[in-house]
TrEMBL record:
Gene Ontology terms describing biological process: methylation; tRNA wobble uridine modification
Name this polypeptide is given: Carboxy-S-adenosyl-L-methionine synthase
Organism expressing this protein natively: Kangiella geojedonensis
Database matches in InterPro entries: CmoA (IPR005271), Methyltransf_25 (IPR041698), SAM-dependent_MTases_sf (IPR029063)
Domain Methyltransferase: 60-158
Amino acid sequence: MSKKDNIYADQLEQVESFNFDQKVVEVFPDMIKRSVPGYTAIIDGIGQLAKKYTQANSSVYDLGCSLGAATLSIREAVNDESCQIIAVDNSTAMIERCKLIQSGYNFSMPVEMVEADINDLDFKNASFVVLNFTLQFLPREQRQTLLNNIYQGLNPGGALVLSEKLTMSSEELDASIINIHHDFKKQNGYSDMEIAQKRAALENVLIPDTREQHYQRFENAGFKQFDTWFQHYNFASFIAVK
C-alpha cells in the first residue's frame, strides 16, 4: 500500500537533490498521482499503443521503469508469451519493489527486471520501447545518443513512446503553465512549501526540453514518423515509429 507523499511537508534546513531512493519508493504512486497531470491516461495509453505496435517474438523495453506501471499496462494489453518485457532502472530500491509488484500478477508475457544504466544497454529485436518521464533525468549530452541506440535496435514498424515534462518555447507562456501546474498540485493537497522544496530538489536534476528539441532528436535518430499523442499542461507524451 502506497504511503502519502509528505517528503517535503516539513521545512528542511537543506534541500538535497532529488533521487529515487527508498523514501521516494514508499510514496511514489501517491507522488506521481498528485504531481503529474494525466499520468493515469498516459499509462493506459501506453498499453493500447503497445497492443498496436508490439510484434510477436520480439522484446519490449521499459526504460526507467520505476515501480513498473507501464510494464503492467503493457503486459495486460499485449499478454503475448512469445514476447518479453525488459524493465530497466538504475535505482536498487525501485527495482526491488518493482520485482515484488510484478510477482503479484500472472500474465503470460514474461518480464525481466534489470538494474542498470539505460545508456549501457544493447537494444536488440525491439518492437516497442518506453521512456516514461525518464529522458528528462539524463544529462542533455546523453539524450541524442540514447535515442540513436534505441532507433538502431528497433525492428521496422517498431515504436518508441517518450513522455516528458516540457518547457514552452515562450518564456511568458512557460511561466503561466508552470503556475497552473503548481495550482494543480495545490488542489491535490501539496502546500506552497512542499511545492517550493520539491522544485528546489529537482533543480539541475530534472531538466526539461521543448517539444521542438524532442522532435529534432527523433529526426536526427532517423525516425520519419513522430507526433504528440497526449498532453496535459506541460506534460506530454510522444510516439515515434521506425
